[in-house]
Write a structure and sequence with these properties.
This protein has 2 helices and 2 strands. By secondary structure, the protein is mostly helical. It has one domain. A two-stranded antiparallel sheet has the order 1-2. A hairpin with a 5-residue loop joins strand 1 and strand 2. It is rod-shaped and about 70 Å long. It starts with a helix and ends with a helix. InterPro entries: DUF3955 (IPR025016). This is DUF3955 domain-containing protein. Keywords: Membrane, Transmembrane, Transmembrane helix.
Length: 69
């Protein structure tokens, strides 16, 4: 669960860095932006949520299963 939380924080950090770095337009009209941070941020967020939710779901389901027996 700790790794999941760290991945979520890293994903949020990617989105923060994308906003702080910003986008620029050069003299020829080309847009320069740190686009790689967006898919990386979504990947880290999704992976972190999965790694956080799986142990929580296992814990909830196991508690419910032991009460029935």
């Amino acid at each position: 669960m700790k790794i999941g939380a760290l991945l979520i924080l890293a994903g949020l950090g990617c989105f923060l860095a994308f906003n702080l770095l910003g986008s620029t337009l050069d003299a020829q009209g080309f847009l320069h932006e740190p686009f790689a941070l967006l898919p990386l941020g979504y990947l880290l967020l999704f992976t972190g949520m999965v790694l956080t939710l799986i142990p929580l779901l296992k814990r909830v389901l196991c508690k419910g299963h032991t009460k029935e027996q």
